[in-house]
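Journal club side-thread
Mid-discussion, someone asked how the predicted structure for our own chain would compare to the paper's figures. Pasting it here so we can look after the session.
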Amino acid sequence: TDAILLANHGALTVGSDVFDAYYKMETLEHYAGIILYARVLGGEHGLTPEQISELFRVRRDVFGKNDLGYLGDGYCGGRDIDAAAGNTASNAVSEDELVKEITRAVMARLGMLQ
């Protein structure tokens, strides 16, 4: 969630400082290169739910990062992932509701809510 691909504009990464954002961009570019090579060599092969769970366990245990976005059973969530898979979540929040919720949270954090 620290890297965003902008249609017709390229990529944007964010970090705790400029160096953190830079290294995230380097990681994104490296990943894009791996995907390119995989496609040239016949296509990517997805990970199993067990492999994904193990990667998130290592991320949590070794690097101390929470399983942000990971919902279990090999599912990482996200509207874009749902759309690509052809899934429709019955509990999905509308974009307007999501914008309102984020705006409310930011304003509360800044002390702007009464």
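Post-session note: Residues 1-45 form one domain.
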